[in-house]
Amino acid sequence: MIVQILGSGCAKCKSLYAEAEKAIAASGVQATLTKVEKIDEMMKFGIMSTPALAIDGEVKCSGRIAKSDEIVTWLTTA
Fold first, then answer.
1. What's the CA gap between 15 and 9, in Å, rounded?
2. How far lies 78's CA from each of 12, 39, 49, 59, 71, in Å?
3. Low-confidence ranges of the chain (pLDDT < 50)
């Protein structure tokens, strides 16, 4: 499973990355967490605002910082 944080590296993007790290640890799911910071790569996901989170290429949220509990739900139902 691949979890991607899409954003330019701002404080909100870093917070979402930290929430995703917590969620992966809490869920026990094998996942690789990566950052996508290039605009052209982010545009491929069709997002209009950052930060955003995608799991296996599917955007789960954009424009907000999802909490780790919510991310755990996405990880365990993906």
1. 10
2. 24, 26, 23, 12, 10
3. none
Catalytic (active-site) positions: 10, 13
Distance of CA 40 to the CA centre of its chain: 17
pTM of full prediction above 0.85: yes
Can you list the alpha helix ranges (DSSP code H) found in the chain? 11-27, 39-43, 68-77
Amino acid at site 20: A
Whole-number Å distance between alpha carbons of 48 and 18: 22
Could you count the other beta carbons within 10 Å of the beta carbon of residue 76?
A: 12
Per-residue model confidence (pLDDT) at position 35: 97
